[in-house]
C-alpha cells in the first residue's frame, strides 16, 4: 500500500509538472502568436496606410485631371459660344449694312430715275416748244411765201409727180411720166450732207429733213420747168418744186436752209422771188446765215460755169453720187458693164474716175453709166 501510494504521488507530481509545462507552452505559444499577430497588424496598418496614401494621390490626380478637363471644356464652350455670337453679330451687321446699302442704292436709283424723268420731261417740253416755235415760224413763212407769191410771176405749166426717193435738200427723185427721174431744184443750193470732199456741211441735214417733210406731208407735188434747158449734162431735170402749191425752193431759202445760187439765164423766172426770200433770211440771221461764212469759204463753194448746159450744177464732186470716191491715177477698177458698175456707184462715174470706160459713156458726155 505504501508502494502504491508513492507511485500515486509520483504520478500526480508528473501530471502536475506536465500541466505546468503545457500551460507554459500554451503561454509561450500565445505570446509568440500574439507577437506574430501584432507584427501582422503593424504590417497591415502600414500596408493600409500606404494603400490609402496611394489611393488618395490617385484620386487627387484623377480629380485634378477631371477638373482640368472640365475647365478646358468650359473654356472651349465659351470660345465656341463667343465665336458663334461674333458670327451672329457680324451676320446681323452685314445684313444691316446690306439693307442700308440696298436702301441707299434704291434711293439713289429712284433719285436718278426721277432726275432722268425730269430731264426727259424738260427736254421733251423744250423740244415741243422748239417744234411749236418752228412750226409757227414755218407757218408764218409759208403764209408769207404764199402772200408774196402773188407779187411775182405765177407758176407756168405745172406737172404732177410723186416721190420716188429722197436724195438731199436740193435733189429728189420723182416718178415723172412713169419714169424714176432725178430733179435738181432750180436757182438754189443747200448745204451738203455727205459730200465726198467737204463731207457734211452745217444745216445740210436740216435742209434734207425739211425737204422730206414738205414733200411727205403734201397731197399734191408738182414741178415747173423754166424757159431754158430742162436738164443738165447729168440728165437731172431742172425745175421748181411745189408741195400743195407752196414752192419748196423758196421755203428752203426763206428758212435759211439754202442760198440762191447757180443762176444761168434764161432759167430765171422766179429769181427775184427767191432773192427776196434770201434777203429776209439774211436779215433774220437764221439757218446758214447764223454762221460766220456758211458758203463764203472756198471749201464750201461750188465753181460756176458760163455754159448754160451746166445750168444749176457744179463741176465739183457734189454732182455725182456721194458714194463715188475721188478719182485716183494710181488705181484701176474694171467692170464688165454698167450693171456691175452701178451696183457699186449708183449714179455712175466721171471720166477721171479709175472705173470709167469710154464704151460705157454712150452719150459721150464724159460720164459713164449715169442714170
From TrEMBL:
Residues 157-291 form the TNase-like domain. CDD domains: SNc. The chain crosses the membrane at residues 12-40. GO terms for molecular function: endonuclease activity; hydrolase activity. Residues 359-371 have a biased composition (Basic and acidic residues). It holds the Pfam family SNase. InterPro entries: Excalibur_Ca-bd_domain, SNase_OB-fold_sf, Staphylococal_nuclease_OB-fold. Keywords: Endonuclease, Hydrolase, Membrane, Nuclease, Transmembrane, Transmembrane helix. It comes from the Bacteria. Residues 303-332 have a biased composition (Low complexity). Residues 79-147, 297-332, 346-371 are annotated as: Disordered. This is TNase-like domain-containing protein.
Amino acid at each position: 500500500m505504501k508502494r502504491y501510494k508513492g507511485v500515486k504521488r509520483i504520478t500526480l507530481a508528473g501530471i502536475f509538472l506536465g500541466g505546468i509545462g503545457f500551460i507554459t507552452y500554451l503561454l509561450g505559444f500565445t505570446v509568440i502568436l500574439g507577437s506574430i499577430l501584432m507584427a501582422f497588424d503593424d504590417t497591415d496598418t502600414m500596408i493600409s496606410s500606404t494603400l490609402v496614401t496611394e489611393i488618395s494621390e490617385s484620386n487627387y490626380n484623377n480629380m485634378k485631371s477631371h477638373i482640368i478637363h472640365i475647365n478646358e471644356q468650359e473654356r472651349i464652350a465659351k470660345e465656341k459660344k463667343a465665336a458663334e455670337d461674333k458670327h451672329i453679330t457680324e451676320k446681323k451687321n452685314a445684313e444691316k449694312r446690306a439693307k442700308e446699302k440696298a436702301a441707299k442704292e434704291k434711293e439713289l436709283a429712284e433719285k436718278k430715275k426721277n432726275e432722268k424723268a425730269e430731264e426727259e420731261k424738260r427736254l421733251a417740253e423744250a423740244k415741243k416748244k422748239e417744234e411749236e416755235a418752228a412750226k409757227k415760224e414755218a407757218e408764218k413763212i409759208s403764209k408769207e411765201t404764199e402772200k408774196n407769191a402773188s407779187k411775182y410771176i405765177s407758176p407756168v405749166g405745172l406737172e404732177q409727180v410723186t416721190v420716188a426717193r429722197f436724195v438731199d435738200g436740193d435733189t429728189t427723185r420723182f416718178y415723172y411720166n412713169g419714169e424714176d427721174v432725178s430733179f435738181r431744184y432750180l436757182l438754189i443750193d443747200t448745204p451738203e450732207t455727205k459730200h465726198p470732199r467737204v463731207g457734211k456741211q452745217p444745216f445740210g441735214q436740216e435742209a434734207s429733213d425739211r425737204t422730206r417733210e414738205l414733200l411727205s406731208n403734201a397731197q399734191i407735188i408738182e414741178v415747173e420747168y423754166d424757159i431754158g434747158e430742162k436738164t443738165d449734162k447729168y440728165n437731172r431735170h431742172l425745175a421748181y418744186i411745189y408741195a400743195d402749191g407752196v414752192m419748196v425752193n423758196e421755203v428752203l431759202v426763206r428758212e435759211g436752209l439754202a442760198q440762191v445760187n447757180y443762176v444761168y439765164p434764161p432759167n430765171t423766172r422766179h429769181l427775184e422771188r427767191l432773192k427776196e426770200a434770201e434777203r429776209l433770211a439774211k436779215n433774220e440771221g437764221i439757218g446758214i446765215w447764223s454762221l460766220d461764212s456758211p458758203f463764203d469759204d472756198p471749201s464750201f463753194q461750188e465753181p460756176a460755169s458760163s455754159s448754160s448746159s451746166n445750168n444749176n450744177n457744179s463741176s465739183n464732186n457734189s454732182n455725182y453720187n456721194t458714194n463715188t470716191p475721188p478719182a485716183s491715177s494710181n488705181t484701176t477698177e474694171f467692170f464688165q458693164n454698167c450693171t456691175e458698175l452701178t451696183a457699186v456707184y449708183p449714179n455712175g462715174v466721171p471720166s477721171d474716175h479709175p472705173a470709167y470706160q469710154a464704151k460705157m459713156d454712150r452719150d459721150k458726155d464724159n460720164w459713164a453709166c449715169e442714170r
